[in-house]
Amino acid sequence: MSASYRTLVEQRDALAAGEVSSRELVDLSLAAVEAGSRYNALVSTRTEEVLESAAAADQRRASGESLSALDGIPIVIKDNMVEAGQGTTCASRILEGFVSPYDSTVVERLRESGAVVLGCSNMDEFAMGSSTENSIYGPTRNPWDEERSAGGSSGGSAASVALGLATTSLGSDTGGSIRQPASFCGVAGLKPTYGRVSRWGLVAFASSLDQIGPLAHTAADCATVLGVIAGHDRRDSTSLPEAVPDFSAALDGDVSGLRIGIPDEYFEAEGVDPDVLSAVHGGISELEKAGATVRRVSLPHTSYAIASYYLIATAEASSNLARYDGARYGRRSPNAKSLSEMYTLSRSEGFGSEVKRRILLGTFVLSAGYYDAYYRKAQQVRTLLRRDFDRAFEECDLIATPTSPEVAFRLGEKSDDPLKMYLSDIYTVSANLAGIPGISVPCGFVRGLPVGLQLLGRALDESTLLRAADAFQGRTDHHQQDPPGWVG
Amino acid sequence: MSDLTRDQVAHIAALARLKLSEGEQDAMASDLGQILEYVEKLRELDTSDIEPMAHAIPLATPLRPDRASETLDSELAVSNAPLREGTAFVVPKVIGEEEEG
After folding, report:
1. Which percentage of chain A shows pLDDT scores above 70?
2. How far is C-alpha A239 from the geometric centre of its chain's CA atoms?
3. pLDDT, tens only, A419-458
4. Whole-number mean pLDDT of chain A?
């Protein structure tokens, strides 16, 4: 058996050259899942299915009928993306035992490309959290330090890549849930433009903010996976009709003349670790050395983003999670004697405390007498945040910021203080509110823990983001460092 | 705004079909009060002339031809039912409940 692979591109080339089979790639992944199990990155592994899929992929390859460059390569999905005949729990008791009767669009597109779904990654319950601690399976541990959080809510997806269980994974990002765990685990994570990837079959948290995207060691691998999952889908009425460009073709390594905006407000925010800031400044200097120009820009409403985000996200969540009623699917309380008890007890026993907190907050801000003061106000501020970006992008092509104000925090450090946890999303929520794409790439280390550089781009301009991130990785080796937990 | 009262929390919980223990009610009153106090900062902004934004990307409501097409078959549709009879969901009796459902 060959040595392990860190990137999808290496796997693709090795498969094409006949140096490795899909079966061997799958065996490597299954062995890594076993070896890395104490990190709790995956909540389910499709052991039998992946062997069947790999055999089929090898057969296709032998007869010259490969479906795509991804044919036979294992990939991890987050446990909020459904596949027909498979369980999806969203790390919630209320969905224990749920088996999906249909495929999500992303799984359908992965299958059409021949990619093999290895298993489902751990997450904060219903994607509500920034640490993957709000999970019925227990927290995911950070591959760089077991006592620390992998970030969240896609902590399992980020840790899977960092540990070497698979070269790529899918996560979902409602307020930073791909980018922040990518930053904490030292991998790349891309949140595409809202509507670029279909949400059909993604369990809804906040429908106007949720977006699926790839995580990998490299921006180049993110580009390949995005090319597979992106594109219009008539089953998602918010899916964008725009044609999907060849993201990989955009990776020419050339950033000369690219104008990078540095928002003062992000670098002067309270509570940001100065060492994180200097790592991010170091990253920006690399892009400058590669020929990009740097200028200061202003995003004046930044300090209102968290407040706007948590009002809108919880309002949408309270509405979306009303569907868990114990009647049609999911867990029904065995203690319910009446219809109203069926609703109330099923929900109260099925949801964890962070989910309850957000449902209550969302219900409150939508309730009579409070709607205008909270929900409508938050939507108006959302308009202001969007305008900030529109103005800034008149002067620059990309915006560079830290992904998180800190490196990975200790497990338990914030779990008793919801507001403190919310404030750690300061750099990521604005992109979701504005609907623009963002990527986090590793740009250095502070006290042995990875730091993420976030690049934000114009709506639909993932190509420029990926080009800059790829050029950055071509000049740096932060993404080539293996964590102590590496089992690939 | 400071902490919500326990009555307020009980009212919201009832709207959301959640039942909280007394301990949970107290904790939620304090947590929600703290969060609501934080979001008060939005009041610093004059937004009287600002249109609220429900969606990041302006999209027209997509239309499709009104044609019959394949849907989930009824057997699959009820396959996750906690309790079923044939292709129907079975729930506790509605009529005669004392509490308003």
Report:
1. 99
2. 18
3. 999 999 999 999 999 999 999 999 999 999 999 999 999 9
4. 97
A239-249 pLDDT, tens digit each: 999 999 999 99
Contact present, A216 and A210 (Cβ < 8 Å): no
pLDDT in tens, B15-35: 999 999 999 999 999 999 999
Q: What is the pLDDT of residue B101?
A: 43
pLDDT, position B98: 55
pLDDT tens digits, A314-330:
999 999 999 999 999 99
Residue numbers in A near B52 (CB within 8 A): 376, 379-380, 382-383
d(CA A58, CA A26): 11
In A, which residues are within 8 Å of B36 by CB distance? 361, 364
Helix/strand/coil for B79: coil
Rounded to two decimals, what is the model's pTM? 0.97
B94 — contact with chain A (CB < 8 Å)?
A: yes
- Is A153 labeled as catalytic in the residue annotation? yes
Q: Is B52 in contact with A307 (Cβ distance < 8 A)? A: no
Q: Which residue of B has its CA nearest to A338?
A: B92
Band of residue A339 on the pLDDT scale cut at 50, 70, 90: very high
Question: Whose CA is closest to A198, among A171, A223, A234?
Answer: A234
A250 Cβ contact list (under 8 Å, min separation 6): A223, A463, A464, A466, A467
Q: For B14-18, which contacts have Cβ atoms below 8 Å and span 24 or more sequence positions?
A: B15/A363, B15/A367, B16/A318, B16/A322, B16/A347, B16/A359, B16/A360, B16/A363, B17/A322, B17/A325, B17/A340, B17/A343, B17/A344, B17/A347, B18/A344, B18/A347, B18/A348, B18/A351, B18/A356, B18/A359, B18/A360
Supply A239's token pair.
């899916």
Å between A128 CA and nearest CA of chain B:
15
Check whether A1 has a pLDDT greater than 70: no
| Mean pLDDT score across all residues of chain B | 90
Structure token digits, residue B82: 């906690």
B4, B38, B53: residue with CB nearest A386? B53
